[in-house]
TrEMBL record, chain A:
Descriptive protein name: Peptide/nickel transport system ATP-binding protein
Keywords annotated in UniProt: ATP-binding, Cell membrane, Membrane, Nucleotide-binding, Transport
Lineage: Bacteria, Pseudomonadati, Pseudomonadota, Alphaproteobacteria, Hyphomicrobiales
GO biological process, one term: transmembrane transport
Domain of life: Bacteria
Principal location class: membrane
PANTHER family registered for this protein in UniProt: DIPEPTIDE TRANSPORT ATP-BINDING PROTEIN DPPD, OLIGOPEPTIDE TRANSPORT ATP-BINDING PROTEIN APPD
Protein's cellular compartments: Cell inner membrane
GO molecular-function term, one example from the UniProt record: ATP hydrolysis activity
Organism: Hoeflea marina
Keyword Cytoplasm: no
SUPFAM superfamilies in the cross-refs: P-loop containing nucleoside triphosphate hydrolases (SSF52540)
TrEMBL record, chain B:
Keywords assigned: Cell membrane, Membrane, Transmembrane, Transmembrane helix, Transport
Family of the protein in this entry: Belongs to the binding-protein-dependent transport system permease family.
Species assigned in the record: Hoeflea marina
One Pfam family per UniProt: OppC_N
PANTHER family: OLIGOPEPTIDE TRANSPORT SYSTEM PERMEASE PROTEIN APPC, PEPTIDE ABC TRANSPORTER PERMEASE PROTEIN
Protein name, per record: Peptide/nickel transport system permease protein
One GO CC annotation: plasma membrane
Predominant localisation class: membrane
Amino acid sequence: MALLEVKDLAIAVAINGRLVPVVRGISFEVEAGTTLGIVGESGCGKSLTSLAIMGLLEGSQVRITSGSIVFDGQDLLALPPERRRAVMGADMAMIFQEPMTSLNPVYRVGDQITESILQHRRISRAQARERAIELLRLVRIPDPEGRIDSFPHQLSGGMRQRVMIAMALACDPKLLIADEPTTALDVTVQARILDLMKELQAETGMAIMLISHDLGVIAETCDTVAVMYWGKIIETAPAAELFADMAHPYTRGLLASIPVTDREVDRLEAIPSRVPLIGETVTGCAFHPRCGRARPVCADIDPAAIAVSPSHSARCHFPGEDSA
Amino acid sequence: MSFLHSVRDIFRGRAMGTAGLIWLCVILFAALAAPWIAPFDPLDIDPVNRLTEPGWPHLFGTDHYGRDTFSRCIYGARMTMLIGLGSVAFALVTGGAVGMLSAYFTRLGNFLMRGIDVLMAFPALLLALVLMTLLERSVVNTIIVIGIVYATTTARILFGMTLKLKREVFIDAAVCSGAGHGSILFRHILPNLISPLLVQASFIFAFAQLQAAALDFLGLGLPPEVPSWGNMLSESRIYVTRAPWLLLYPGLLIILSVFSMNMVGDAMRDSMDPRFKDDIAGV
């Protein structure tokens, strides 16, 4: 059984008392020790999915309307809050997009790390501090004994993201959810943070769910990839297979819109038009108004996931076809 | 040491604030050492020497019962400090709790903050008068009433700041690490509110002194036998033409203390809020 199983998860936002669907029934699995990448443009529902898994939607305008999230054999949506808190931070941890604001400015970084350790482990403060130094060393922060007493504003963005990762790893989680962990960082720092995450995965055997809009980041780090568009997973495949043979026109469009350096390109390909608005109704395939291979059937019937190969499926009536 | 350092940082280059702080230290010393530095018992009646002019041995003269005004002023500092600190503590604890809880638990907040809105609809002095008429005149009741009046503004300010703080990513990160409501409120949100609370405290302290003096003057604050600056003003107002020093000295003390506290509050706010930094504003 997979470590994390999300089934038919649907999330809606309450706008003026009306529930507007944002995530429209997505299912995916994360196997222990592997990396799943979720890719899609802004507003496709990828972050909401991660927040739903971490239980951060409580008390907001956003509701989970159906589906289940089973982690390590436990249905998270059915757990009482105290049991859920025991899972969060211990077996499952998250790092965020903004390393600048994800650390509490009034605490020394060491205190923040020991805090999350003490929340879950019955050990003394001194032992927790030892562990915090060990974690800072693990995330390759130079001089961890000195850095542990720094305040967040004394650290650079990359350093803070390393501290966040150290905090997330404090209790040896089985699953690390990383929501755009490198988006706010310089490209050079990005690569080092991604490498660090891969190395830590190899050392600890944790699974990673990486959320990004950056296909390059996904290609570099993930075992499996799920592409989201307008609240649905439109294509999913092992990374190598996906990048070798993209079946969905949207995935191809995403790749074509990335600048390449190995050949001369005059203009970047853009996907025409725009994503339907939240709450807009689209009949048939949500992508058909922007799709080069759209035919009459696309405007009428929303395609089901079609298997391109045993491990590769796409929601398209004409998977793999070249665009007209 | 670090406390002394931060005090030095706050007051360095801020002459008015420093002067205010020194004056408040004098008042605090007078309050603490009143029995040893007051030349007379503040309650001792001496009908022979009633309404004597300032001089020796009665530095500030005597009142209509012949009580020594200087000694009463020194004991009055005690009341000022007691009422000030007491109402600050009451206002910050109750107002802070209401504001933070309201912002954190929004459903409770809709209910509590409407109550605060109702209280804020009354002018501060009027609200204090209404509450005081319902209660007996005593030190504790005065502290509670003034505390309630300023708890409303504290609740408003902390409500807004907590609303903003609870949406910070580091709060999400704390939730993710398994922190419960109590831990998030007190360990993650509250420490971020310390500096606005301190600034708020300094202004409440100043207003509480004025408010207490006004209540005393209207005969609704401390019991009449208690030597407080407000009571002294109240009792001697009919002698204003014959013995104006009876109003002069307590009046001056009230003005100086409130002014000093405001200057200290300004200095604290300026040093903590970068938007008010003197060197940037060019003031």
